[in-house]
Amino acid sequence: MTGSDDSTQDREGTQEPARPGAGAPRARGLAGPQPPPAPTTAGSLLDTLRLAVIMLDTSGRVLLWSPLAEEMLGWAGEHIVGRRVGTLLATGAPPPARGARRLAAVPAPGPAERILEELLRSGSWDGVLWLRHRDGHRVQVEARASMLVDGDGRHFVLASVAESSRIRTLEHDLAALDPLFDSSPLGVAIFDTDLRYIRINDALTRMNGVPREQTLGRRVEEVVHKDAAEELATLQRHVLATGRAVIDVVIPGPASGWRSVSYHRLEDRAGRVLGISCTVMDVTERQHSAAKIERARRRLALLNDVGSRLADLLDVRRIAEQLAQTLVPRFSDYSGVILHANVPDGGELPGAPYGDATQMRQLGIGAIKEGPLVDRMLGLGKVIQVDRASIFGAVLHTGRPALVQSPRELRETITTYPGDPKVQAAVDLGIHSLIVAPLRARGIVLGLLVVSRAGGREPFDAEDLALAMELADRSAAALDNARLYIREREGALMLQRSLLPQSVPEPPGVELAFRYVPGSSGAAAGGDWFDVIPLAGGRVALVVGDVIGHGLRAAATMGRLRTAVRTLAAMEMAPEELLRRVDDLGDDLAGDTAEGWTATCVYAVYDPSTRRLTVARAGHPPPVLVVPGTGGSHGGSGVSGVSGADGAGRAYEARLTDTPAGVPLGVGGVEFESVEFDVPDQAVLVLYTDGLIEARDEDIDVGLDRLRAVLARRPPHSLEATCDDLLATLAHGREPDDVALLVARLGGLPEGSTAAWTFAAEPSAVRQARRLVRDTLTRWELRELTDVTALLVSELVTNSLRYAHGPIGVRMVRGTSLLVEVSDPLPDPPRERSAGAEDEGGRGLQLVARASRRWGTRHGPLGKTVWFELALPVPA
User: Which of 427, 371, 422 is nearest to 404 (CA)?
Assistant: First the structure.
């Protein structure tokens, strides 16, 4: 390692290395192609130590300079190979200050003879050196050098160098781990890849109760008690195989208590699996605290569940059923709700004290099993006899709960009345604990909540009694609210039924059936309604609507809305115009409701003479049209649906009418749109409210598909049967909402019941119209109406000739009355006025109004129509 370097310096101040001897191994920095670097294993301990390798000849000249040596000292291999290593040894002088001039060349060789002498004498040397970095600062390293001999007998020096700071850091880490392992209050153990103990601390030794010398080298199955050994062994194999850590697995302790176990897989920096580590903590106190917290959580959860299940119910019987069923098995094995007989039907609360003759009924039951004994003890709807001196009687009179805590007390104490077979059935079922809690509302006892436990379950204690009272008080409030609501609902239903039609007309060519079903489960009366309104010329309006909301206010709004629709329908308005007018009424229909009103409605007009149906909707579900035959679209109506067939093979198809949905009435400021299409003969139109198709947690499209499937599967031969089938099939599981259902079979008028003509706007039109009208009435055997009809037609056609310049249409329809229509392209309706004695005209509409039963005008797509009706003569 001594000697001077006889090479010259390059331009930058670095010395040119001399070529090594021919026998020296190839090193980094030498000329010629270099072999690709060998793959290295990342993440090993050597990466932390960063061990550099240097090879020297016996004179101290560098033969091999590893990349880590280059990285550690900054000297590239091409700059240092061939030079004496002594030039890198830093003397005792301190390192240059920051910013000092970088070395311009390899420094002059320093004294290193002692190191070389030691190597030549003993063949090895180790110690701490200060080496000079290329940028001038000093680097402290620990070096180990050995003398080697190659196959030709040449000697070489192989030196390993590592930075002292990294070695100190690793030593400190190891020194800190050992006392931490031994002094940790947590149990810690290390397992090898065979899952045998190779290290364990004192804390875990004490937890296991097995000496250290009897633990090391054994598996966990040989050390830990059997209750937890199998589970721990499975966890260890899982962690060792997958590398996924297991954290805080709680297992029972060796004698009593609980342990929390965590496992991690141990790997070296190269990714090789060394084994697993284990951490164990005593969590007995934590488990006891968690058990108390869990018990309190379960009690609160039970209270919350009971409250949430009863909150939406307004039917006494359903509340009693839900309460009894919710308590089993979470709180009791058997439960029963017993109420005063007046409560379920909305009657008055019991005013007089309970006596032996007071009628009580069991309206809710819950049981963990079924059988004759359970039926004898609990019977839904049974009359319960209570002796005043019994436990049940004492609770009814005092309003204070009672607790029975043993089978002996249950047998020897009068529970209901002496000799009650229900008590013996309870004993036979193994019931050992019983709570009787009063159901109190506003200081009055409505009934009793009775819960019991059987078998090996823990008996009721004082905490359970407090919980039962809390459950009873909450449930009693719900029961009393339902009782009051039933009374209001009955009044609302009475009002609603009085506002709905008790019967519907039967216009020619139309067969009708209808149903109205109030909301079930104690829901208040709603605003659903339907109506059938006869229009001029045998036409008929079919209406179904739904006022949003429930109760008396909704029913009253429904009545006003139905009246408005009937009034506007009599004015022969188009469906979309009628809905717009109703929507414009706004606050007038809302009455004194501060929040306004909202309603959905579908309004359909059917003309049997033309078999044309016009439909407009205001946010209402689309009507369904059931038509015979399959495939295709009838009349270009743009409806699609589900097909089916009856037992005789006749095919039917249930289609949703493709009509704009619109927005609900009451929103205001919107326009409505109607769709008109042809209807096949004997098609069935189904109008309904959303209560028929809506169900909990179900999209409305599912209900619509189900409705069409039912209608296609069961052909509507009988409309009454169709209504019953729809309600029976679709009402199950629906929301507790009202249902209004209107089903109409749409046919045509008898053949030859209509006649229509179109005339040019010429003076001869009056004469032609009068002649054709007379001929038609003669053919229809209505000669009694010939003169008056011809006169009125002459007046209306003359009026059209005076103001219109297009074709004039005349149409006659024979139904329950005689309808005559005169249409022209003029959009403005005629106005009736009073003509003076000297006026030549102006009396036509006066004559029509006085001679006809009723008359009116309506707008059409091409103009206006003036119509009048004449009563048919009474047959002899």
Answer: 427
How far apart are the two ends of the chain, measured CA to CA in Å? 149
Q: Are strands 683-688 and 674-678 parallel, antiparallel or unpaired?
A: unpaired
Kindly state the helix (H) or strand (E) to which residue 874 belongs, with its residue range: none
pLDDT digits (tens, 9 = 90+) for 282-299: 888 888 888 788 888 888
Q: What residue ranges in 761-853 does DSSP mark as E strands? A: 808-814, 817-824
Q: Which two tokens stand for residue 131?
A: 């080496």
**For residue 594, what pLDDT band results from cuts at 50, 70 and 90?**
low
> Taking the CB of residue 816, how many other CB atoms lie within 10 A of it?
15
Contacts of 554 (CB under 8 A, 6+ apart): 492, 524, 525, 526, 527, 547, 548
Q: What CA–CA distance (Å, rounded) separates 716 from 510?
A: 14
Beta bridge partners of 743: 513, 686
- Write down the H helix ranges in 353-508: 372-377, 391-398, 407-412, 421-428, 462-499
Q: Which two tokens stand for residue 516?
A: 């109205």
**H runs (alpha helix) in 570-654:** 575-585, 587-590
CA distances from 4 to 18, 20, 111 (A): 12, 15, 11
Helices 700-713 and 719-730 sit at what angle, rounded to 10 degrees?
140
Token pair belonging to 595: 């929040």
Sign of the four-CA dihedral 566, 567, 570, 576: negative
What band does 74 get if pLDDT is binned at 50, 70 and 90?
A: confident
pLDDT at position 70: 87
Q: List Cβ neighbours of 170 (8 Å cut-off, separation of 6 or more).
A: 48, 49
Q: Are strands 599-607 and 540-550 parallel, antiparallel or unpaired?
A: antiparallel
Spell out the residues 6+ positions from residue 632 whose beta carbon is closer than 8 angstroms to its own: none
How far is the C-alpha of 818 from the C-alpha of 785, rounded, in Å? 9
8 Å CB contact between 324 and 366: yes
Q: Let me know: does 339 contact 439? Beta carbons within 8 Å.
A: yes
Q: Which residues pair with 847 in a beta bridge?
A: none
52-61, 234-243, 258-267, 421-430: least confidently modelled range: 52-61
Bridge partner residues of 149 (DSSP): 155
Strands 526-534 and 863-871: unpaired
Residue 537 host element (H or E): none
Residues in the chain: 876
Tokens linked to 525: 């009366």
Residue 13 backbone phi and psi in degrees, to 5 = 95, 0
Q: How far is CA 285 from CA 257, 279, 281, 292, 447, in A?
A: 8, 18, 11, 11, 43
Cα–Cα distance list, 218 to 213, 223, 237 (Å): 10, 7, 15
Higher pLDDT, 875 or 205: 205
**Cα separation, 510 vs 535, whole angstroms:** 13
Q: What are the two backbone dihedrals, phi and then psi, of residue 64, each rounded to the nearest 5 degrees?
A: -140, 130
Distance CA 381, CA 369 (A): 19
User: Which burial class, exposed, middle or buried, applies to 866 when counting CB atoms under 10 A from its CB (0-12, 13-18, 19+)?
Assistant: buried
Non-local (6+) Cβ contacts of 493 within 8 A are 518, 525
Q: Check: CB of residue 359 under 8 Å from CB of residue 341.
A: yes
Question: Buried (b) or exposed (e) across 35-73, using 16+ Cβ within 10 A?
Answer: eeeeeeeeeeeeeebebbebbbbeebbbbbbbebbbebb
Half-sphere exposure of residue 13: CA atoms within 13 angstroms, side-chain side: 10
Tokens 């006494």, residue located: 316
CA–CA separation, 837 vs 289, rounded Å?
Answer: 107
Give alpha helix (H) positions in 753-785.
764-779
